């Protein structure tokens, strides 16, 4: 007896449709270019190959603060050279902070504290001359920085008149250090190599009786003399700077751009 179920025509159609659908989920035995599955596989393979051939991104470049500072300095020097070249009247001016600004208040407070400490140390019993020795050393260094390389006589004169070893030896022997004597020696030195425009200001220092007040004004005048020397040097070097300006600016600007691009 045949026990197979009898299928209606409608059941046969559903079975055939189901088989066709199942076959759609089977992998193609021989995929062709027309096969959607083959196209997807091709795209995935190409995508993987592209991943393999792409270069990794460049690592970030880090710039140190020293490099940035050097670049900023180069840019400032380039700007300064440009100003010197194009402006025949260009002069350096001393920077002064705005009055009553924080910078101004700090500067004034520090200066006042320095001179107050010096005065109180000399008023002690016995006097403490260490701050006075440091003061003379500062004056000596400032004077030496004003001397040109070929002025060997002035260099020797400064070294002899402000010899700190001799000053310390005399202090150990006598227990006394005369700022009044050193004030006159310093004024005589300043008179020898200041600009003619400063002659009267140097002479006015002799009229100040208090040695501490006198040295206050000595430092003020030394700052002016440094500015005079800088402007004199600019005036003498301007023709040479003009000759080299184009090459110099191009080199410095390239250095600045390199530092900026490395950020």
Automatic annotation (TrEMBL):
Family: Belongs to the TCP11 family.
Protein name from the UniProt record: T-complex 11 like 2
Domain of life assignment: Eukaryota
GO biological process, one term: signal transduction
InterPro entries for this protein: Tcp11
Pfam families, sorted: Tcp11
Region (Disordered), start-end ranges: 1-33
PANTHER family, per database record: LD23868P (PTHR12832:SF11), TESTIS-SPECIFIC PROTEIN PBS13 T-COMPLEX 11 (PTHR12832)
Source organism phylogeny: Eukaryota, Metazoa, Spiralia, Lophotrochozoa, Platyhelminthes
């Amino acid at each position: 007896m045949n026990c197979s179920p009898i299928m209606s025509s409608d059941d046969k159609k559903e079975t055939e449709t189901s088989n066709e659908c199942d076959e759609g989920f089977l992998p193609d035995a021989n995929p062709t270019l027309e096969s959607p599955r083959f196209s997807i596989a091709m795209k995935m393979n190409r995508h993987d190959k592209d991943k393999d051939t792409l270069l990794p991104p460049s690592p970030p470049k880090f710039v140190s603060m020293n490099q940035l500072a050097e670049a900023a300095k180069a840019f400032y020097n380039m700007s300064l050279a440009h100003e010197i070249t194009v402006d025949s009247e260009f002069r350096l001016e001393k920077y002064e902070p705005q009055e009553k600004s924080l910078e101004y208040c700090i500067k004034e407070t520090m200066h006042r504290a320095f001179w107050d400490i010096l005065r109180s140390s000399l008023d002690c019993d016995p006097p403490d001359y260490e701050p006075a020795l440091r003061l003379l050393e500062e004056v000596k260094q400032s004077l030496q920085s004003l001397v040109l390389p070929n002025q060997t006589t002035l260099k020797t004169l400064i070294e002899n008149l402000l010899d700190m070893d001799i000053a310390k030896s005399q202090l150990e022997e006598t227990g006394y250090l005369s700022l009044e004597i050193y004030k006159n020696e310093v004024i005589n030195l300043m008179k020898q190599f200041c600009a003619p425009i400063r002659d009267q200001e140097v002479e006015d220092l002799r009229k100040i009786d208090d040695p501490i007040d006198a040295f206050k004004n000595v430092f003020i005048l030394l700052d002016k003399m440094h500015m005079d020397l800088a402007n004199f040097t600019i005036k003498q070097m301007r023709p040479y700077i003009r000759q080299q300006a184009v090459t110099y600016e191009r080199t410095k600007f390239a250095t600045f751009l390199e530092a900026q691009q490395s950020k």
